[in-house]
Amino acid sequence: MKAIVLVDENWGIGNGGDQVIYIPGDLKYFRETTMGHPVILGRKTLATFPGGRPLKGRNNLILSRNPDFAPEGAEVFPDLESLLKRAPEDSFVIGGASVYAALLDCCDTAYVTKVHRAFPADCCFPNLDRHPEWWVGYCAYSISGDLTESVWQYGMDFLAVEELLVTNRLVTQARERGLPVYVWSVYDEERMQQYLEMGVSGLISDYPDAAAQEIADFRRSRPHTQYQISR
Ligand SMILES: NC(=O)c1ccc[n+]([C@@H]2O[C@H](COP(=O)([O-])OP(=O)(O)OC[C@H]3O[C@@H](n4cnc5c(N)ncnc54)[C@H](OP(=O)(O)O)[C@@H]3O)[C@@H](O)[C@H]2O)c1
Questions:
Q1: Which of 78, 79, 95, 175 makes the best surface tag, with the fewest CB within 10 Å?
Q2: 196: CA distance to ligand 1 center in Å?
C-alpha cells in the first residue's frame, strides 16, 4: 500500500476542511499516479472533491462510521479492519489526516509533494523527517537546466534525479554531502554504464535485470564500490 499527499514545509495538509493549496502540476501527477488503482480516503476528504463525488477510474474505498452514508460509485467501510480485508496491495491512501495517521504503518512508500512554504493548517501528515524508519528522498524531474544549490538545504536521505538532470557536478556535490544519488528511468545499457562511471549510487529502471547486469559488471571492475538497484 502507498500514500500520496501534498504537504507544506511543516507537513501541513489541510485547513478549514480543504487542502492547503492546489497546484495544477501536482493534481496532474496525483491523477496519473493513482489512475487505475484503488484509493482509500476518509468521508471528509471525499467532501472536498468536485460535487463530493468519488474519483473516476479508481475504486473509491471510503471510511465512515455513519451507516447511512452511501455515496454512489464508492464502497464504504465502517472501520479499518473491514477496509484492510478488502483493500488490494496496490491501493493508494489519499487522505485526509486521520486516514493517513491510521494507515501510514501499512504503507511501504509515501509520494510526498513538498511545497517549501508555510500555509495556515489545522491538520498534518505525519512528519517523516522525525520517523527514522522512513527514508526520505527528493525526486527531481521536469526541470529545465541545472538543479539549483537550494536543493541541498532540504533534509533528505537520498536524491533521485531523472536522466536529463544527471551531471558530474551534481553527483560530486551529493557525494560530498554523503547523499546517495539515484538516476531514473534508465533504459539504455550504454547510459547505465555511463552513470555508474559518474559515481551514481544506483539505477532506477523498468529493466531491472539489465540494470542488475550492468551493476554486476561494473562492480567486478571496481570491487570497492557498492551499488543498489530498485525498480
Ligand atoms: N494535502 C493533501 O494531500 C490532502 C489530501 C487529502 C485530504 N487533505 C485534507 O485533510 C483534511 C481532512 O482530513 P480529516 O482527518 O479531517 O478527515 P478525513 O480523514 O478525510 O475523514 C475523516 C472521516 O473519515 C471517517 N473515518 C476516519 N477514520 C475512520 C475509521 N478508523 N473508521 C471509520 N471511519 C473513519 C470518519 O467519517 P464519519 O465522520 O462519517 O464517521 C471521519 O470523520 C481536509 O482539510 C483535506 O483537504 C489534504
A1: 79
A2: 44
Instruction: Find out whether 110 and 2 touch, Cβ atoms under 8 Å.
Output: yes
Q: Where are the domains of the chain?
A: 2-130, 137-230
CATH number of 2-130: 3.40.430.10
CA distances from 157 to 22, 127, 153, 192 (A): 27, 14, 12, 22
Contact between residue 230 and residue 182 where contact means Cβ atoms under 8 Å apart: yes
**pLDDT, tens digit, 9 for 90 and up, residues 202-230:** 999 889 999 999 988 988 887 555 544 54
Look at residue 85 and give its three-state secondary structure: helix
- Pick out the chain residues at pLDDT < 50: 227-228, 230-231
CA of 53 to the centre of ligand 1 (A): 15
